[in-house]
């Protein structure tokens, strides 16, 4: 006899699962109907290799074989991504009348559009790498930046996740984003819109919300939050969804470590936000905001959220 | 001859090890006497699969095979956990007169009690998933929450680690907790008591101390600290152990990003703690504390620790 | 025909790569010329095992076989590290006239010097473990500290990375450091100089800059930044490199969570820096700085960076 | 440019493939439509473990957990086997009008019947193990026999393959049989009917044909062939399929190394066939056939095929 | 102290190695200078996949992605094969004055010629598959033959090994051949010349010697040997190398199980060799040789070697 | 509900297992008490690497690191082998009164004696490699022989297995031997005594019995059997164990393919046995035996067993 009452535990666990499923009005299905983390990991690794074959691809690749590698790798990765998209779409629409063939065609169409953006993704990432190289005096080469900087790792993920989000695959997009979050401590919602040449130094603790809009050549330090204030409530007391609720950050802004910017405010072109300040109002282009300036100029305290 | 003076380095390393062992009054043993990280990882992965078989278990599992999977998986995982518990108990009691059979029986007894709590753990985690789904306007389904949210990942680990801690297996509990810390940047001491429906949004940088007590339906944002003030010192100048030294957070409290609450204070039911505030005193039920309110109402400065 | 226009995407990706390479003035090479993350991971894992064979080495090792394990492991690891050093040196000097044999000899010389420091690295790490054990009332044994504490994990990496940095292998050093950063959320630049008995509690979000100098028996809590103020600019408007720009922290200093210390200031021996304070000036030995004290004594606001 | 004319080779390979496909009248399909070797390997490994859990199952299994292991393992293995059966059935019937659901139900029905035979398979294998133990003076325990004897390994495979063959899954059956062939050099067609207590000593080079019928307690040595004579030809000059064309070997027969028995002859109960003899006629029960006896008694030479 | 006298054993082993090396007049080298089995295995697996992508390639490949897969796979495999060829050529010529660059160019040239033969190899293998399908009444489809028949597995290896042998890479060729030998028990020397449509039924124990020449549409059964008689000796008593010493087997010959044909004899077109016969003389076209006929017609005994 | 009646099958399988166990008079144990194939495989791979570090050891080993590799490898392998020996000894003596500590000491003693023979094993294997190189005109280097020849692979295993057999670990010895059997088709009982310079060409199908004694510089071709005649029977009708029942083959003998030698006969020094002959009597030193000579000289037929 087992030292542990396995049968009893199995039976209690089944009961708890059944309560959950019944509360969720799940019909007893057979197969799993969710994208798989492992599959998403594989797809992302493949896409990263295909985007930067000689630096983040397989160790033994040679330049003359790049195109063969890239072609095979994206062929496989897109196919696998399409399968995961089918899982997500089936999950989302599970009460609708959609045939498997329709689901499949729908997924294929979305992934095709995603695929066509890959060259643009690479071009954008090159600007991010360049921004990191130029923005950090300690950076010794563009390749070091690509290999080592967590901010760059996070952006590779975000620039893959964002088009997926826009193509209606928000669960897959989220899985890609959380992969970066776990690796880097940088939490960018895949819905955020981020311009070219974006650089996050150190990065740990940065949070960027779903409706944030960031211009070109913006620089952020660790523990910066671009968040929402309390959510607007509709007449039924529910949070209103889909409203723009995160900051707009215009071109050439620099935001120092620990600064918190909340709500649909605009940080004007070229402004500088000092470390640890708390901003809930618009900032004029070119302005420089510090804790001291805040107190002096506005007569109010940061942190009134 | 080797390019590197291997023999010399080996010999110096041996000498340093010996110094350490002699300073630690270690007797030369034969085998390793510590739980293994790899084994703990395997146990945790197995338990996670057994708790959520169709969503976090093996990709090809089908609902009709769930119970077989759960039974075999927990049978193996509990056995392996028992072995690791033997390692911890032997390590802890290594100077005592305990026979291997007694150690084994002791470990078995503790793991049996742990095992019986698995269904309750699952039920609690369901409330956490629900809280995250309801608390985040961006959440699109309970499954997305379970799959993607680092706060939920951290709680799965905590709800496994906490019973181990209470059963006197604090090293194993700590190893489970640090696994979550590494993955999510959320640092919950396994000793912390946390009620149902707990939700941490974003999560990076959250720290919750050993004697913290958290009620039901509490919500925390990133970089919140529930910490200790300086430790009380006993007559010999040593920190007093085991005293309650972290906050009590009652039901329905919300604590915004970056807030720091230190010491055995009580945050009353339904209170709201604003972003970045520093709290070292009790907060009344229903109160709303912001940096501004702190200054106004209390005439004192946060941060006097 | 493929559902995805693979050929077209491959061709566009090639074009983007070519633009990047041409902008970077890369000559078309054949092989990859960068250290490999996987190889660095393997080297670090091997060195960690060799430094702490019975606690972080292979599970089945026995004390009587330690030296055999250590000898073989460092023999292989140093050889592999030398190969990665060749990659880095070739990358750095790729326009110079250096023969492969010279590169190889150069790398060998540097790795030999690194190797000879391994015993000292172990001895230093023993002091860090001891400091964590003594500094945290929750720590139950030195072995728990070594196995579980992210601050110790980060220091193991740093004490490997720092000598590599000093030996001119800054890319490899950075790769080692970022490995710790990803695992622990602690971001220590490999250039930072850190004395014996260093302890970081919780750790997430700590940032320590390249030219920081830290004495003995210093303790840091989570989210402490030892950073630079804005970089001094030379006559051409470029940041001046190599200048000391991060704090000097003398022996026995304690810095509480969230404190930010910027610029080449000195925190005097035995000083205490309170939580969340913002320091940009020297602090006297033995002083205790809190947000309140800052306001009172200096009449100025933190955060003027 | 690549050192190898990859594009040209790819294009020539495509042309050769197209010629083959067109010669085979294949319509261009999308997916692979064949069982996978890797999947069959996994299924067989699982079934072997489930049949002999404590001896050929996972190393850490304990007797009290056997049933949990067996239940989960066969649940997964049968499911996987069903999928492979769908592949085979689709392959076989690829020109027919069968819906996927019909294929699936058909496969399920066959695998269910297979599954119900597992206990009988184990019981038969126990008799084979016993026969080997009793038949070989060198055998020291029944467990040694199960672990080490290639003849037993081959029979485990055959006793799995034969029911699959009888259930119309002859491709899967063949894949199982060839797995044993590759491991042991013993080539038993899955169609062969073999009674209880069958023992093959040494085994290498044994060949047993599709329509062979072997009674109980038969013993064979290495390089014995139970083969067909030249195939009977039908009026169109094609080999006639499905006719019994291999020997019938009755109970208690012993056949020594290198003997060749060809055609639908009957070797009577208890007969002995000497080493290297060539038999193409019936042998009476109890008879002893050697090369000498053949010459003497029959005045003919072996080998007239 | 170790239970085993490791140091003593290591030292004795070193001494034995040194004796061997000194007897072999090896100069102490640094690195290994032999092709690696693991690398050859990988190359062969890749080539097999590239030759039969939809049947022996990766499970998830789809027809529309075949060319991408084939291109990338052979690009990598040929590169890896070239590296192994460098190892072999360096090994062979280790006393010559060959620069690394010359070795590399030599290897590249040979592998390029090999690569150009891949389409012809596939075309030949298609004839072998067809011959097996037509020659075995039990074969149910050409795909079963490709997937399951050890004779076909052996020919895939031989048709890869033979061109390598002809290009002077006989060690690599041998490694490929022995891979098939281990899997199938069929031992074909890579030097043997074998025409289209070759079929080996069952196969175990077949041996085909280095200078054997086999025509088209030849069929062999298990344990057939096409071997050499005793080697001709030159004036110094050494075996003469390079002389044709194995049989010539013309088109359409069938050789039954266990037959042994030795020396440079010719088996004429369309001849049949019976089971177990021993042939050391030419056989006329169309003749049928059995043990009986041998005795009758030639008055001599087989086996006089 | 599952498509397959899992519970019913599990229950029937349990019943069959119980019948077996009860017939075998097994007491219900907990853990597995048999050596593990996987562990034996690992040990053998390690020993092979330690015996031939630069040719069969890890690819990246360099000569200057050989001793470190060898020391660590045999330290681990011997330890693991000792554990497997404990399993075998416990299995063998399971009804005896042996304490775990006694078992452990017993195993240690045997493995220590085995370990001391490793250098002699290497020296013997060098003579086998040399014999193969000199005996096969096709062999191009001693390294090709070591890497490629199945006869050499089989001898590496035998020269490891034989001392284990002599030390009373016959189950482990058998597992090692069957590993070679599966890889090469060569079946050498670990009890066989084989002198230096032993060469098996091609090898498939060779069988060498437990009490065979083979001198120095003996050469065998494929499918040679050195077997037993029918076993002598004792008064109770059981085969008598332990009697010498296989041939003695003196120095310098050559035995051609397919020859069968049965019983405790002696093949005198320098004799030659022709292909396919059947020998059951002594052969004089220097004699040459062929099928023809057998008939002529002895008036008897082979095959009378």
TrEMBL record, chains A, B, C, D, E, F:
Pfam families: Hexapep. It catalyses: L-serine + acetyl-CoA = O-acetyl-L-serine + CoA. Its EC number is 2.3.1.30. It comes from the Bacteria. InterPro entries: Hexapep, LbH_SAT, Ser_AcTrfase_N_sf, Serine_acetyltransferase, Trimer_LpxA-like_sf. It is an enzyme of class 2 (transferase). GO terms for biological process: amino acid biosynthetic process. This is serine O-acetyltransferase. Keywords: Acyltransferase, Amino-acid biosynthesis, Transferase. Belongs to the transferase hexapeptide repeat family. It comes from Pseudacidovorax intermedius. One of its GO terms (molecular function) is serine O-acetyltransferase activity.
């Amino acid at each position: 006899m087992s030292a542990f009452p396995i049968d009893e535990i199995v039976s209690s666990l089944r009961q708890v699962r059944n309560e959950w499923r019944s509360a969720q009005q799940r019909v007893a299905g057979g197969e799993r109907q969710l994208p798989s983390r492992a599959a998403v990991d594989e797809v992302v690794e493949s896409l990263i290799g295909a985007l930067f074959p000689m630096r983040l691809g397989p160790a033994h690749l040679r330049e003359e074989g790049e195109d063969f590698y890239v072609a095979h790798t994206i062929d496989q990765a897109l196919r696998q991504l399409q399968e995961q998209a089918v899982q997500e779409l089936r999950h989302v629409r599970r009460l609708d009348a959609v045939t498997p063939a329709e689901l499949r065609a729908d997924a294929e169409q979305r992934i095709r559009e995603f695929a066509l953006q890959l060259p643009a993704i690479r071009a954008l990432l090159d600007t991010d790498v360049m921004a990191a190289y130029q923005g950090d005096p300690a950076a010794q080469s563009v390749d070091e930046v690509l290999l080592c900087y967590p901010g760059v790792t996070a952006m590779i993920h975000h620039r893959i996740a964002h088009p997926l989000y826009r193509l209606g695959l928000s669960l897959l997009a989220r899985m890609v984003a959380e992969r970066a979050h776990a690796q880097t401590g940088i939490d960018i919602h895949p819905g955020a819109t981020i311009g070219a040449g974006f650089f996050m130094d150190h990065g740990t603790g940065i949070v960027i919300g779903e409706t944030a809009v960031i211009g070109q050549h913006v620089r952020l330090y660790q523990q910066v939050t671009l968040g929402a204030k309390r959510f607007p409530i509709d007449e039924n007391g529910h949070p209103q969804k889909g409203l723009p609720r995160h900051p707009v950050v215009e071109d050439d802004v620099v935001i120092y470590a620990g600064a918190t910017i909340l709500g649909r405010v605009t940080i004007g072109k070229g402004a500088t936000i000092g470390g640890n300040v708390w901003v809930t109002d618009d900032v004029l282009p070119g302005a420089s905001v510090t804790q001291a300036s805040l107190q002096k100029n506005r007569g109010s305290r940061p942190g009134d959220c």
